[in-house]
Write a structure and sequence with these properties.
By secondary structure, this protein is an alpha/beta fold. The chain contains eleven helices and 13 strands. It has a seven-stranded parallel sheet with strand order 3-2-1-4-5-6-11, with helices on both faces. It has a two-stranded parallel sheet with strand order 7-10. Helix 5 (93-113) packs parallel to helix 6 (148-165). It binds UDP-4-deoxy-4-formamido-beta-L-arabinopyranose. UDP-4-deoxy-4-formamido-beta-L-arabinopyranose is lined by residues 84, 86, 124, 126, 179, 198-200, 203, 215-218, 229, 231, 272, 295, 298.
C-alpha cells in the first residue's frame, strides 16, 4: 500500500518511513524542509539501501497535493507536517493556526476527492494540558487553554472526527504522542532542531557535544519525587512502529467510517533529573547542568495510560529510556563526525 507521509523528512516522519518500508508499505514523502533537512533523505537511502519517492512541497498548496494524489495511487496518509514549537506558537499564533489547520483541511478535501480513506494524524499529549488524574487515558478531558500549538492539535482532531462523523468515507486515527526521544540505532537519522533546541534531550546531547555550555533544569520545586517535572519519554523508533500498527488497524476496519484516538507512550513517567542521570550513566559521561527557574507554561507531570494502545491497537513500547538516550547521543556524535569530515 502506498502511503503519503507529510513531513516525512522530519524527526518522527523519517523514522516512520523506515518502519513503513520494513513493514512492506511504500512511503511517498512530501516535505518543504521548513523544520527538517534534506540530509535526512540521504540517511534514509543509506538505512533502506534504496531511494524513497520524494516531493519537495507544501501541504498547503492544492496543486502540489493534487499532483501527488493524481500520480501516486495512494492507499493512505500519515500527516506529520505542522509547525510544532510551543514557544513560537505563543509569539506567532496566526502562523500556527493558518499552517496547521489549513494543511489538515486541504488534505482531507484532497483525500475525499481522490477516494483515499485511511488517515493517521500526528497529535500530542499537549492536548491534555495539566491533567488532574494520572496516568492520562484517552477519555481524560482535553483542556482548552494551552499554547496555540496545542490548540491546533485539539482543533485538528475535531476537524477529522467531524469529517468522519459526517459520513465521509474516512477511517482515521489520532495518535497522541508523549515525549519522543532518541534516534535510529544506525545513527544516520535523528532529531535536527533548528537553532537553539527547546526540547530537553537535544539540548542535553548538544551540551554533551560541547555546543552548549550547560543544561538548565527548569525548576526543581514541583510536587514530584525530586522536584523536577515528570514526562513519558518514548523512543522515536517505537513511536514510528505505532504508525504502522495504526495503518494496519485502519485497514482491518470493515466500516467505511471510523475514528479513534490512542495515547502513544511508555506508560512510565521520569523526572528531568532521572533522565539526566540515566544519560550520564548509559553514555558514561558527566553532564554540565544547573537548576534554574520554572519555564512558564510547563506541565508539572504527565504520563500515559497505555492499555488502549496495547490492547486495541496491539502496539507496546519496547525500548527503554536508556536505549533512547544512548541512541540520541550516538546520533549527536555522528552529526559532528559528519561535519568534521565534510569540513576536513
Ligand atoms: C521536557 C521537560 C521541561 C528543556 C513539548 C511539546 C510536546 C512535544 C514535545 C511537539 C520539561 C524540561 C526542557 C530544557 C528543561 N512537542 N526542560 N530544560 O515541553 O514536555 O513537550 O515538546 O510535538 O507537544 O509540548 O518537552 O523536551 O521541552 O521538556 O528542564 O532545556 O524538560 O521543563 O519538564 P515538553 P520538552
Amino acid at each position: 500500500m502506498r502511503i503519503l507521509v507529510t513531513g516525512g523528512a522530519g524527526f518522527i516522519g523519517s523514522h516512520t518511513v523506515v518502519e513503513l518500508v520494513n513493514a512492506g508499505f511504500e512511503p511517498i514523502i512530501i516535505d518543504n524542509f521548513s523544520n527538517s533537512d534534506r540530509s535526512a533523505l540521504e540517511g534514509l537511502r543509506q538505512i533502506l539501501n534504496r531511494d524513497v519517492t520524494f516531493y519537495e512541497g507544501d501541504c498547503n498548496d492544492p496543486e502540489t497535493l493534487n499532483a501527488i494524489f493524481e500520480k501516486e495511487n495512494l492507499g493512505g496518509v500519515i500527516h506529520f507536517a505542522a509547525h510544532k514549537a510551543v514557544g513560537e506558537s505563543v509569539a506567532k499564533p496566526l502562523m500556527y493556526y493558518r499552517n496547521n489547520l489549513d494543511s489538515t483541511i486541504l488534505l482531507l478535501e484532497t483525500m475525499q476527492r481522490y477516494g483515499v480513506s485511511n488517515l493517521v494524524f500526528s497529535s500530542s499529549c499537549t492536548v491534555y494540558g495539566q491533567p488532574e488524574q494520572l496516568p492520562v487515558t484517552e477519555a481524560t478531558p482535553r483542556l482548552p487553554a494551552q499554547s496555540p500549538y496545542g490548540n491546533t492539535k485539539t482543533i485538528c482532531e475535531d476537524i477529522i472526527r467531524d469529517t468522519v462523523h459526517s459520513g465521509a468515507a474516512l477511517k482515521a486515527i489520532a495518535l497522541r504522542y508523549f515525549n519522543p526521544i532518541g534516534a535510529h540505532p544506525s545513527g544516520l537519522i535523528g532529531e535536527l532542531p533548528l537553532g537553539v533546541p527547546s526540547n530537553l534531550v537535544p539540548f542535553i546531547t548538544q551540551t554533551a557535544a560541547g555546543l552548549r555550555e550547560k543544561v538548565t533544569v527548569f525548576g526543581n520545586d514541583y510536587d514530584t519525587p525530586d522536584g523536577t517535572c515528570i514526562r513519558d519519554y518514548i523512543h522515536v523508533v517505537d513511536l514510528a512502529k505505532a504508525h504502522v500498527q495504526a495503518l494496519r488497524l485502519l485497514d482491518s476496519q470493515s466500516e467505511s467510517s471510523y475514528y479513534d484516538i490512542f495515547n502513544v507512550g511508555t506508560g512510565q513517567g521520569n523526572t528531568v533529573l532521572e533522565l539526566i542521570k540515566t544519560f550520564e550513566e548509559v553514555n558514561q559521561l558527566k553532564l554540565n547542568y544547573t537548576i534554574g527557574p520554572r519555564r512558564p507554561g510547563d506541565v508539572e507531570k504527565i504520563y500515559a495510560q497505555v492499555d488502549k494502545v496495547n490492547n486495541v491497537m496491539g502496539w507496546r513500547a519496547e525500548q527503554t529510556l536508556a536505549d533512547g538516550l544512548r541512541d540520541a547521543w550516538r546520533w549527536e556524535q555522528n552529526l559532528h563526525l559528519k561535519k568534521s569530515t565534510v569540513t576536513g
